[in-house]
Amino acid sequence: MNYSVSEENYIKAIYNLNGNKQPVSTNALADIMATKPASVTDMLKKLKTKKLIIYQPYQGCKLSAEGVKVALNIVRRHRLWEYFLAEKLKFEWNEIHVIAEELEHVSNPKLIERLDEYLGFPRFDPHGDPIPDHEGKMQMLKQVKLTQLPLHTPAKVSGLTDQSTDMLELLRHSNICIGTDVEINRKFGFDHSVEIKIPGNPLFIISEQAAQHILVHHE
Amino acid sequence: MNYSVSEENYIKAIYNLNGNKQPVSTNALADIMATKPASVTDMLKKLKTKKLIIYQPYQGCKLSAEGVKVALNIVRRHRLWEYFLAEKLKFEWNEIHVIAEELEHVSNPKLIERLDEYLGFPRFDPHGDPIPDHEGKMQMLKQVKLTQLPLHTPAKVSGLTDQSTDMLELLRHSNICIGTDVEINRKFGFDHSVEIKIPGNPLFIISEQAAQHILVHHE
DNA sequence: AATATTTTTTAGATTTACCTAAAAATAAAT
DNA sequence: ATTTATTTTTAGGTAAATCTAAAAAATATT
Ligand SMILES: [Mn+2]
Ligand SMILES: [Mn+2]
Ligand SMILES: [Mn+2]
Ligand SMILES: [Mn+2]
After folding, report:
1. In whole angstroms, what is the distance from residue B69 CA to residue A40 CA?
2. B142-218 is a CATH 2.30.30.90 domain
3. Would you say residue B165 has pLDDT above 90?
């Protein structure tokens, strides 16, 4: 099957709202899609007839098994293009998302397989999110929030729970990227801010608010 | 300005029918766009109000100066992506066109400039067609048919006037691609076939029929 | 010049993806 | 248990891009 750009964006939005697990409300979807609830209802009816979602009026919607498959494919395309943009075209990691929003809809299957191969089958995108393989499987890491990392324990930044422009700006200013080695040098009880050590960089402090959105993994 | 995929495809089609020089008929356009003349008329009215074409009912259409600019930009994107697909993703030259048809509409200007840079500012696409630079300028080669290349004159294959599957098969069998260095070693008066020399390859003969569709440039 | 043919445009519909305003269903508060 | 507020759906409409069928204009043929 082949889906319109609009259908694909809805499917991906439902997936991003955890619609493969819990029901997603019409309003939540309208909010994310920057559209009106009435438009969402129209689209939900359409996606239901295409058997991509499970939907009963007033009950919210969830992705069907087929819907999850379609969603994972879009996510795969999105993240592979993000990797390409960052790795090959040297875009900053905060610039890549908008461009990948467009590229993800170019749906030639052979193109994506060749791109994957060309990139060396990366398993994580530049934001640390896992890239589904051609079967939709993706590798998960056991991550902890930076706020919960024990003192003096070397770890690697592997994800972000806030990927807003403001957050990315802050991180770039602090020289933190996905893959950066970090360690907590000190924790401040007053505001729960943490002092970070990055090899080769001077020590610096980050707020609890920021640190709780930075995921790391260690051992 | 930002144009729809449909508008862009029409502009490019007009350009490909030499609509920057001669008027293009409604039927010719309908033919190329695989649509009905009535639909073409609708679109021509729209492109006229956007000042991309010069159009009077029953008189055909031509691109305006702005229309040519837009067209060259689409052609630039198309050919850069074709180069990427062939050079980096190792697609065959006959597979790349359809994919580039989609990619050309991803219209982030910085993306295209970065891609151009990443590819090393190529000036010709894998079919030998010139790639407009960011200002719309493109380098033209004085090409001659291989049949008209003088004996023992080193030249480079730079274009094809027949891009059929059969032609490709023949060329691939003979190790001829765009950019291949060739030289005519001998011409046979009987059937006007020519013996070709490619550095590092054994000599071989090609028919006049094939040779007249291969464009080369020399000096 | 009159007629026939081809080309192009208009008229009127359809589909997709939106919208606003109002009605209906659900959830929360009294 | 009512009333009130929130959420969601229906009803009806718009704009883009297509279509078919019919009318009009331009060309070609007698
Ligand atoms: Mn998108
Ligand atoms: Mn990402
Ligand atoms: Mn196209
Ligand atoms: Mn080409």
Report:
1. 38
2. yes
3. no
